Amino acid sequence: MEVCVKKDTIAAIATAMSDSGIGIIRVSGDEAVEIVDKIYQNAQGAKILKNYESHTIHYGFIVEEDGTFVDEVIISVMLAPRSYTMEDTVEINCHGGVLMMQKILSLVMKAGARIAEPGEFTKRAFLNGRIDLSKAEAVMDIIHAKNEFALQSSVKQLKGSVSDKIKELREKILYEIAFIESALDDPEHISLEGYDERLMHESEDILVELHKLSDSASDGKMLKEGIHTVIVGKPNVGKSSLLNILAGKERAIVTDVAGTTRDTLEETIVLGNITLNMIDTAGIRNTEDIVEKIGVEKARKISKEADLILYVMDASLPLDESDMDIIKMIVDKKAVILLNKSDLEEWVNEQSVVDAMKDVTSMDLKLTQEDDCLNSEGTKDILPYQKIEGLANTVYIMKTSTKEACGIDILTSLIKSMFFHGQITYNDEVYITNIRHKEAIFDAAKSMAEVKKSLKMNMPEDFYSIDLMSAYASLGLIIGEEVEDDLVNEIFSKFCMGK
Ligand code: GDP
Questions:
Q1: Considering only CA atoms, which residue is closest to atom 26 of ligand 1?
Q2: pLDDT tens-digit series, residues 175-226
Q3: Is residue 1 predicted with pLDDT exceeding 50?
Q4: C-alpha 148 – ligand 1 centre gap (Å)
Q5: Among 143, 155, 275, 390, which lies 20 to 30 A Cα-Cα from 254?
Q6: Is the pTM of this model over 0.90?
Q7: pLDDT digits (tens, 9 = 90+) for 87-131
């Protein structure tokens, strides 16, 4: 890979740009020590930064060129190659006011450093060979982790979980490429007899592993970014109350007047190890009210893009035209229909909703119970939820009372089971949480499928050798072995300043 490693010295504020106890200005590059030395003196007023040993911390002052005192600081010196970037690095721990940090940074610039681009420190760690690309990306994911799962999986990725798995698969592929090449070069000593069968076996094994990784990606993405969830329903059915219960705090205004939620409210809700990015829409109904209409239009658009729709109904009132509209909107989506206000006298039940859906869709629908609803005697329990069978996507229906907080636990475990294959674990599984990695795995799987095809068609060896090579190259992209400069620049530009 041809990447030009800049050797100039870069600097940035590594801590948040807000007033806090301590702020850190990070300086990295060949002249890091020399540059900071120009503006630092120890408690005795001596300029001796150059004499300090690597991995030592010192108390002193930042001073301007004319000797004016700027701040009292702690300096840490980490010399190449034992630093984050593998270059000489000096970190200035100063008082964490935004003005102070900016002032010291500008002194560092004046002394000869250049302002770092976002992610440039980590980019240097990658270019200097300390970490591979998937580990560098893990650093960014750690910084942006939204929940415990995202944090754990990024930490694992940083420790090498993804790199190790990818390297293992690449080694297997490389072995086959090398074998074919040497057999073609030296047919007298290396025979390819019976090799087809062995390679078919090996390709199938590799494909199984690749599919497992790409399957983990949908779980991984959902776990990392959250499930985009939209709450829809007519006004006054209990949407805001549901959002409040899930969020555990009063945020949406709950009132008795129909139509008070005028636009949409957004909320990130962490339920154990899953995150719901909740959007509460304005009540969908046929309305002439312009303000509300903006909300309704937006609701329709958002619902189209959602991973999950929670359709709240007031089960104490009969279904009407607006319900029919909403039903049309959700039939092809993953959804849970909540028969809310189940504490009141029931007007609508599961079967009447299914009947209404049949009318709207002209589809043959029925309610079914899932096997996991069987109790220990093997008979079916009073159902917490039922599935509506016959639709293009998975739709469940269940009773709730947001007033009495009934059915909420069942709802959250139902959502988990709708989205995740099996148990979510932090332990041995390697989760692919990065879309770039997912695409590379997908391409590698496509090439491996081509290998199998060529084998079945008895094509000459060099045919599948080409596909093996491209599978090898695709996987290399994940750890940064085959990437172009542009991609490297793009990946690192997504980082924060100072990282
Ligand atoms: P939204 O307009 O759909 O957001 O509905 P709200 O959450 O604002 O609720 C409208 C009204 O219905 C409020 O007076 C709530 O107290 C009431 N409400 C919400 N959920 C329930 C429920 O499960 N049972 C009963 N009886 N009332 C509810």
A1: 341
A2: 898 888 888 888 888 888 889 999 999 999 999 999 988 877 767 777 777 7
A3: no
A4: 32
A5: 275
A6: no
A7: 999 999 999 999 999 999 999 999 999 999 988 999 999 999 999
> What integer pLDDT is reported at residue 116 of this predicted model?
94
Q: Please say whether the dihedral angle defined by the alpha carbons of residues 251, 253, 254 and 259, taken in this order, is positive or negative.
A: negative
Q: Are 149 and 223 in contact (CB under 8 A)?
A: yes
403 lines ligand 1 (CB under 6 A): yes
Tell me, in angstroms, the distance from the centre of ligand 1 to residue 240's CA. 7
Per-residue model confidence as pLDDT tens digits over 353-363? 999 999 988 89
Q: Write the CB contacts of 70 (distance below 8 Å, at least 6 apart in sequence).
A: 39, 61, 62, 63, 64, 100, 103, 104, 107
Retrieve residue 389's tokens: 């069978």
- Cα(89)–Cα(31) distance, integer angstroms: 9
Residue of the CA atom closest to atom 20 of ligand 1: 238
Q: How far apart are CA 64 and CA 45, in angstroms?
A: 13
Q: Compute, in angstroms, the gap from residue 246 CA to the centroid of ligand 1.
A: 14
Using the structure block, give the residue that is written with the tokens 């620049």.
489
- Which ligand 1 atom is nearest residue 406's CA? 23
Burial of 376 (0-12, 13-18, 19+ CB in 10 A): exposed
